[in-house]
Design goal:
The protein has 182 residues and is mainly beta. 0% of the residues lie in helices and 51% in strands. The chain has strands spanning 14-21, 28-30, 40-47, 57-64, 73-80, 84-89, 93-98, 107-114, 123-135, 138-150, 159-163, 175-181. Strands 1-12-3-8-9-10-5-6 form an eight-stranded antiparallel beta sheet, with no helix packed on it. Strands 2-11-4-7 form a four-stranded antiparallel beta sheet, with no helix packed on it.
Length: 182
């Protein structure tokens, strides 16, 4: 199976089933009810938040089917900047969001969820992410590899994204694209 999109006249194993780009700030980005009939999802999230605290990156969190109970999620990640640091969380952390210290800087996240429609297994996902931000006068480039599991056997029918700290909003220009894998 190819995970590439082909221009017109070609074929594709991925179909765009949801897409939005914010034109104003929002506390969450929600997909609404997703189309069914796919073996998995590939999700691209480009995100920046309205925090000006120069932390350089915040965590991107998810809620599947409106489930905000953090005890239903487990995640771990490896971050690299000047060194590699690993962390594990009982939390729905799946990527990163850049702060607003520079208007040209957005974090990019590629999330893969396989078997999201199955009802006999928990849902696992993997994310590769990069964040760029500014701390003081230094640019901070952060990479992250995340793995997570949603401890629920329900099919994933909707996804809501939010910034780690709920008091921050996504800014205009942040976007989400969800592709169904055939």
């Amino acid at each position: 199976m190819s995970v590439f999109l082909f221009g017109s006249g070609g074929s594709s194993d991925m179909k765009l089933i949801f897409s939005t780009k914010l034109t104003s700030s929002a506390n969450t980005i929600s997909t609404g009810t997703l189309a069914t009939g796919y073996r998995g999802l590939v999700i691209d999230v480009v995100a920046r938040c309205d925090s000006a605290s120069s932390v350089s990156a915040y965590s991107l969190k998810v809620a599947f089917n409106g489930d905000n109970n953090v005890s239903n999620y487990r995640s771990s990640r490896a971050l690299w900047r000047n060194n590699v640091a690993g962390s594990a969380f009982d939390n729905p952390i799946i990527g990163c969001v850049t702060d607003s210290s520079n208007s040209n800087q957005y974090a990019t996240n590629r999330i893969v969820i396989l078997n999201h429609e199955e009802t006999n297994n928990y849902k696992g996902l993997q994310t590769i992410a990069q964040c760029i931000g500014t701390q003081g006068t230094l640019s901070q480039y952060t990479g992250a590899a995340n793995v997570a599991i949603w401890e629920n056997t329900d099919a994933i029918t909707s996804i809501e994204f939010r910034v780690e700290e709920n008091n921050f909003n996504f800014v205009a220009g942040s976007s989400v694209a969800v592709y169904g894998l055939k």
